Every structure is written in C-alpha cells, then in structure tokens.
C-alpha cells in the first residue's frame, strides 16, 4: 500500500522535473532565436551606416 503511494508521488515529481527542463530548453531556444534576430538587425544597420 505505502509503496504504491510512494511510486505515484515519485512519478509525479519526475514528470514535473521533466516538464521544467523541457520549458527551460524551450525558453533557451526562443532566446537564441531572439539573439540571432537582434544580431542580423545590427549587421544590417552597420551596413547601411557605411557610406
């Protein structure tokens, strides 16, 4: 009986941890894309600034 409860809790915790890492990876991915976009914009402005 107790073992089943513990197993249920364990799987819940593991699932929550996995979800957190997935969210973190997703945020990191978005951040990378955002940084890339910013970099492209900077390059374009530098090119247009040149006479």
TrEMBL record:
Organism superkingdom: Eukaryota
Record's compositionally biased regions (Basic and acidic residues): 19-28, 35-51
Region (Disordered): 19-51
Protein name, entry field: Uncharacterized protein
Native source species: Arundo donax
